[in-house]
Amino acid sequence: MAQAAPLILPVILSGGSGTRLWPLSRESYPKQFWPLVSARPMLEETALRAAGPGFLPPMVVCNEAHRFLVAEQLRALAGARIVLEPAPRNSAPAIAAAALLAEESEGADTLLWLMAADSAIEDVPALHAALERAAAAARTGLIVTFGMRPTAPETGYGYIEAGAALPGLDGVQAIARFVEKPDAATAAGFATDGRHLWNSGMFVATAATLIAELAIHVPDLLAAAREAVARAKRDLDFVRLDAEAFNASPAISIDYAVMERTSHAAVVPADIGWSDLGSWSALWEVRPKDEAGNVAEGPVELVGAERCLVRSEGILTGVVGLKDAVVVVTDDAVLAMHRDQAQNVKILVERLKRAGHSEATEHRRAYRPWGHYEGVVRGERFQVKRITVRPGAKLSLQKHFHRAEHWVVVSGTAIVRRDAEEILLRENESVYLPLGCIHRMENPGMIPLVLIEVQSGSYLGEDDIVRFEDTYGRS
């Protein structure tokens, strides 16, 4: 896009859990971190749309538990700021904090482009053209949203009814009203009447406009955000909003808090191939299909299947004779359903949570700032894990009260500290770490370090750990 003055600050909201894409997307590793429409994760795809001339480095607001995932996926974008929410409070508190931080660092006239981390957009040049129109309107004091022209009678989206064109602002219209997710008959009318647009959840406004409108419509929320920013801590690449102040904010979306109340709202209609990827059905819509209308990802074989989405994360999956089905296979869960039931996956996840199934929210693979681990087998008083440590990374200096560990290097090289010893391990070499010893592992090499960890003891929980020193600021 052409150089803009002033530069635009992309603000990426990455707090969602994407439960309708279970079992792939879970709270521990939600959909924005998965590659869904290309080889890149959705967060990276989103950030790259807002990189280059005309843009400041992005600001990402995310869940504190995902901070190292965000940092890893944005490593290539120099200067990215990562703002940590102590707890999810919906979009308005996150946007308020972002606007205050932008005012503090870049100035009140900074243009913010607010967007979700997990939307798919096919036509990026058309997106940038719409952004130019929105930015021109935002500089006049408006909060501008992007309205997507409907391609189907979608009941899972909110809608915007566009009003009159705004004089002097090309391609910008007033907003007549917002409409919540409609029933099928109403959505069918909206899809063809030419007035109604899908609410994309993208906004452009100056920091000053956002702060002023928040002060008018939700002053208690703005006060909480202001206090959270004033008491924020900076460590590594992160801005940690103060938990007590931030959690005092009402949990409310920016639509309810401001957009449905303000007299300064406007919309830019756009046709950019947008989808919020809010369900498996939505993902099927945007993915390339074979001659029978199927989307197949991973080790999948289809016989006589039509209009299906089948995705496997590793286990060979065969589907015979199904039509309009979704089958998703991970290493610890399987989802099978008709595509028209896609919105009901959230009900299934809530039921799994109530039943105490950890698979509802947690993947077998757990990500850490140094790499990841995954459970292989667990029995009475023992468990086996496969651990992968990134080149140059190291675990915390730690000890355990209830378990001993045995590490066997599968590939790569490890430097292990065991009390006063320092031990170099290569492939097929091992070390024993008795209960209570102070230990640490480091990958000094240029390739990932992979090892098998065998734990034994009376308690094997992840909370049996005392950290003495940690590169990543964990306690």
Automatic annotation (TrEMBL):
Record-listed E.C. numbers: 2.7.7.13
Keyword Transferase: yes
All residue ranges annotated as the Nucleotidyl transferase domain in the record: 10-291
Segments traversing the membrane: none
GO MF annotation terms: mannose-1-phosphate guanylyltransferase (GTP) activity; mannose-6-phosphate isomerase activity
Catalytic activity: alpha-D-mannose 1-phosphate + GTP + H(+) = GDP-alpha-D-mannose + diphosphate
Domain Mannose-6-phosphate isomerase type II C-terminal intervals: 356-470
Highest taxon, organism lineage: Bacteria
Residues in MannoseP isomerase/GMP-like beta-helix domain copies: 303-352
Matching InterPro entries: GMPP_N, Man1P_GuaTrfase/Man6P_Isoase, Man6P_isomerase-2_C, ManC/GMP-like_b-helix, Mannose-6P_isomerase_type2, NTP_transferase_dom, Nucleotide-diphossugar_trans, RmlC-like_jellyroll
Family, similarity comment: Belongs to the mannose-6-phosphate isomerase type 2 family.
Protein name per UniProt: mannose-1-phosphate guanylyltransferase
Organism: Plastoroseomonas hellenica
